[in-house]
Amino acid sequence: MSLKILILGAGYGTRLQRDLLNDTTNKYSHLLGVPKALLPLGGKDALITLWLDALIESNIDITTSVYIVTNSPSYLSFISWAEAHNIPTKNIFNDNSTSNENRLGAVEDIVFAIKKIPLQNSNLLIIGGDTLFLKDFNFKKLYKKFNLINSNDEGCLVTTYKVNDDDVHKLGILELNEENQVISFLEKPSPQSTISRTGCPCFYFLHNNSLRLLQEFLEESKNNPNHTIEDRDATGKFLAWVINNKKFKFFAENVQGRIDVGGLQSYIDANKYFDNSTFLTL
Questions:
Q1: Which of 14, 128, 178, 260 is the most exposed place for a label (fewest CB within 10 A)?
Q2: Which positions carry the signal peptide feature in this UniProt record (predicted)?
């Protein structure tokens, strides 16, 4: 099967925008209103340009494979970025939300986008638009592993990295068996409740036959009388539902680490890191 790639860019970056407003130096005031995926980073015009470079170097045809879902306030900015990088503007989807208060949430954005992506005989890679990996990133290796998993069976592939004890309660934590199959997903557990220190960033190779589960998860969530936007705003909630209910096989491949651009300080740190480093794709 071929591969389609969906980058999630419909968040509103409320923490970063708040940090920028509170920054008394005004050094970063030019970033006000800029979506996190389009933040200039490491000498590139945008964070997601680093992803684009890695995909191109791995012989991915970006004109037919890369799609982005965003919101109304950011739509024209993504269109401008796409035009500058030879991405067809029809590959940029506006989810029509206008604020953090009426956002769709990441899972619903994925469902919204896959109805527009020609996915016949294609698997799907989901990439968080505010996430990057460290310098050991090797797209070809990960894609090869995903295809190997599916040479005799059907399965999805996620990336994992080692987290510190102090961060376990902040993240989704995976428990793996000896074959690196994910056997459970723990949502922000206490460090004492699991020996696993395996975090999972938003970089998921999803088998085509698993995609129907996104709509099923969304419908089940909305039918829950206690449902809130948070239940569909984190992609990890979907993974937890699939894995813990044994609806589809997920396997894991370790990476050195990841950078998550959440607030101003993490952006400053990421910019410094990528000024002196590049993705490794060979």
A1: 178
A2: none
Using one digit for the tens of pLDDT, what is the confidence trace for 125-144? 999 999 999 877 889 999 99
Closest CA to 11 of 237, 199, 266, 262: 262
What confidence tens digit (pLDDT) does each residue in 9-60 have? 999 999 999 999 999 999 999 999 999 999 999 899 999 999 999 999 999 9
Going from N- to C-terminal start, the domains of the chain cover 2-275
Strands, DSSP E only, in the chain?
2-9, 66-70, 92-94, 122-128, 131-133, 156-162, 172-176, 182-187, 198-199, 203-206, 250-254, 258-260
- Would the pLDDT of 166 be above 80? yes
The CA-atom distances, in angstroms, between 187 and each of 81, 102, 173, 248 are: 35, 24, 6, 18
| CB contact burial 1-20 (16+ within 10 A = b; e otherwise) | eebbbbbbbbbbbeebbebb
pTM: 0.94
Average pLDDT (174-180) is 95
Q: What is the largest CA-CA distance in the chain?
A: 57
Tokens for 248, please give them: 């589809």
Please list, in sequence order, all residues whose beta carbon lies within 8 angstroms of the beta carbon of residue 123, skipping any fewer than 6 positions away: 1, 2, 3, 4, 146, 150, 205, 206, 207, 208
Nearest to 249 by CA among 188, 158, 169: 158
Distance (Å, whole) CA 19 – CA 22: 5
Q: Helix, strand or coil for residue 246?
A: coil
* Cβ neighbourhood burial of 159 (10 Å; 0-12, 13-18, 19+): buried
What are the backbone angles phi and psi of residue 114, rounded to the nearest 5°?
-70, -15
CB 258 within 8 A of CB 161: yes
What is the third-level CATH fold of 2-275?
Answer: Spore Coat Polysaccharide Biosynthesis Protein SpsA; Chain A (3.90.550)
